[in-house]
Amino acid sequence: MSVNTMSGYRTEIKALEENLGRVILGKSEAIDVLVVALVAGGSVLMEDMPGVGKTTLAKALAQSIDAKFSRIQFTPDLLPADILGSSIYNPVSGSFTFHPGPIFCNVLLADEINRASPRTQSALLEAMGEMQATIEGMRRPLEAPFMVLATENPVEYHGTYPLPEAQLDRFLIQFDIGYPEPDTEISIFHSQRESHPLDTLEPVVSTETVLNMQREARNVRIDDDVSRYIVDIIGQTRRASDLKLGVSPRGSLMLFRASQAAAYCAGRDYVLPDDVQRLATQVLAHRLVLTPKARYAGVTKNQVIEQIVNETRVPT
Questions:
Q1: Class of CATH domain 220-316
Q2: Angle 157-162-163 (CA atoms, 0-180°, nearest 5)?
Q3: Which of 78, 105, 199, 239 has the CB geometry, 3.0–4.6 Å to 68, for a possible disulfide?
């Protein structure tokens, strides 16, 4: 497939990035990674301080692609049925009618996901992995595109339930937004003086176009030496002395898909090692489990991935 075919939606991708940039100022890197996740068809975990724009970014994405949006505020008393839906008895007809839950949407914001119990968190596993939800024994497919954007607060753990490794492994990418630069923060003051930019945000891409992007991204060429490069990085995580648990085959496939999407968003029909290096930390770090010794020594998962990438031979 030619480069021109692959870059057919480059204008739309740029418009989407610019639209998100109107709402989240000065965070082009976070926006780029989010768009890559969208094109790759994966879900995102945003772990960051309160008030930096995680919820706003999720809403802006849904509005920009004209998608059906649902938000769930995760709390300890939230039940799986509150996410998936349930059947309600109709005394007039004497029958049960299924009422779909908020998961039946295109973009689902799972706000403070770690505040719900593991039982409730697990209601998302099937949806994120298989694009379906089994409810009362019946398989119910979700509408494509489907994307979960989950948020976590990394500074307050009272009353929270850490996400288990099996659920973390379902997220394509984890990233943070971070605090804005001083000049950007001043610009935020003025941009929201009369109203929030989100209030006037218009769609620039349709969900049908997003599906076309996702299909085209799957056709981006990734040569054997680049595939081997991914496998070498993954293999190093399974042998690293600081890690109790390395990256699973699902994680290696996720890095493969994300690299394809990154190349596609850049207008290329082939993956470069640079694409792999750029996304390795965001795609792999949250899948790792540090050894107690490394954790107490202050080693971070990001540091482990960065070291492995630096030490792995790059194909030429």
A1: mainly alpha
A2: 145
A3: 105
